[in-house]
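Late entry, evening session. Most of the bench is empty. Finally got around to the prediction I had been postponing all week. Sequence below, unchanged from the version circulated by S.P.
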Amino acid sequence: MNIIIALIIFSIIILFHELGHFLLAKKNGIKVNEFCLGLGPTLVGVTKGETKYSLKLLPFGGACMMEGEDGESQDDRAFNSKSVWARISVVAAGPIFNFIMAWLFALIVIASVGYDRPVLTSVREGFPAEQAGLLQGDEIISMNGSSTHFFREVSQYSLFHPGETVEVVYKRDGKRYTATLTPKLDQESGRELLGMNGSPYREKGNMLETLSGSFYEVRYWICNTMESLRMLVTGKVGLKDLSGPVGIVKVMGDTYDNSQSTGGTGFAILSMVNFSIFLSANLGIMNLLPIPALDGGRLVFLLIEAVRRKKIDPEKEGMVHFVGLMALMALMVFVMFNDIRNIL
């Protein structure tokens, strides 16, 4: 049952992404030939008007297939017959819809359980935070110029910037102070720590705090994704650490089981919604990467066209996207086998 729930959530997030492309395509008068969920052979499909709506065999991925999107078409409603800014809006709509969905999920979570304020519950004896004079009750405002709104952001910064000296701005009794901290190695955990402890418990705010907190929650997961990509590019993590749809569904299933055993069905559902914030924001960021075949790769070509005021040869662009797609498929196969190996 947990795997089914995870697949449903995963499918909804992908469907919402493709819905962004679909709605903007329709708004700009572009003909949509097929709108599908999944990949591979069609299991079931129905045609309404000019569009075929279908469900594919593999429950990962989806597509909004537009007339003339990847080739020449004489149809005046083809994708490539529209203005460059119309096409940019259609391509960008998918990731934007993912960020909107992430915010909606975040709104549900923040309204239900609140957020973890970046307030220190204690400082560890002998560590930099204590030596710099930080005390229980101090509120962390920023770290190296990056504002903090949750205590998770304090922990996140230390995780992604191990060993780095950090300038911490904190508030005490309404006044702001600055401290420069250099992490110290904790022999027990083997990690370099600043010695700042916070509470994992969340507290609810008023309506304005709930709305703003939802935006900050999405920002938190976007930053998390960007920092993970930075570590991948710089070699601090390897390809073997990547996880694909199979691994994600497994983690979601395990999260549901653990949450249900801890707090019941309601808590398990809320945990799934919280996981979906990360998943939707992550999908939005990944699709904006300037990689051929992804939305980000298409946007690069469209922006070049907007600057040059001249279309790029469709055949050449199509070839670049085809090569990118093959590379992505190869990476997907590698990640899938890696997920299966880790599960077994």
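Two things to note before I forget:
The mean pLDDT is 87.
The CA atoms of residues 114 and 204 lie 4 Å apart.
Will write this up properly tomorrow.
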